[in-house]
Amino acid sequence: MDIYLPIASLSVNGLVIIGLGLLTGMLSGIFGVGGGFLTTPLLIFYGIPPTVAAASAASQVTGASVSGVLAHGRRGGVDYHMGGVLVVGGVLGTGLGALLFDALQRLGQIDTVINLLYVAMLGSIGGLMAKESITSLRAGADGARPVRARRHHPLVASLPGRWRFYRSGLYISPLAPLLLGMFTGILTMLMGIGGGFVLVPAMLYILGMGAQVVVGTSLFQILFVTMATTMMHALTTHAVDLVLAVLLLIGSVSGAQLGARFASNASPLRLRLVLAAIVLLVAVRMAIGLTWRPDEIFTVAAL
Description:
Elements: E1 2-5, E2 10-13, H1 14-31, H2 36-46, H3 50-74, H4 80-107, H5 110-138, H6 154-157, E3 163-165, E4 170-172, H7 175-191, H8 196-205, H9 211-237, H10 242-263, H11 268-291
Antiparallel strand pairs: 1-2, 3-4
Helix pairs in contact: 1-2, 1-10, 2-3, 3-7, 3-9, 3-10, 4-7, 4-9, 5-11, 7-8, 7-9, 8-9
Protein name: Probable membrane transporter protein
Subcellular location: Cell membrane; Membrane
Organism: Novosphingobium umbonatum
């Protein structure tokens, strides 16, 4: 079933794209991550231009985040006060990311930068996840681990001006979540990710938020920041391919339900180890793609 993607300017097998969305949706349901950090690399492997892959993946993450925010909101798992500050920072970050994206696009280096960012981010995060999982397995900690005392980072405590975030149980400067939101906004603009795999650990170990509101608040920020990112891409880079995004969304919604059922019967620690292996494999594949000499070398130059 060949479908023409108007922005990417190529024809693809629609079932393959839906299958990619199904795969990332299953990862979302199994591992509790947005899946956006794998959607863009998989699209690039399939032949979608990196700029179109990053912009379209962001719009897919927007749709996939809606149901998660509603579900966590009903259970009181969203700190809207903290989420609002993160959203403001994220929107500012998308603006900065758009300027950076445009500058790199004018230099002709945006595709290379996207690939390098993915290799660095996936390689480091996958390595840390694998190390933690292997250490825990060797120690026999396949069950519940002791809960670390919750405390925000000393740098957060040194920032001026403090607000009370009652749902999170924090009394910290709003500059900390604002800067964190800006950082994830820039990543979302450049890489097409939701940023949850960076945002959630930062909220836990840097801001010191309670685990019961971290996931819901992260999804709340991701929802609005990916909306802003999609609009920014549509207005500035014109790289959002709605046909591609819809096909991905069809697959990811179904995959998330299947993944959630599978995850309920599996060991969380072993699941993290599998996810780490997948992330590292994708990082290695992208690194090879940056260094391997193709059989045919060509260039497209403006006349």
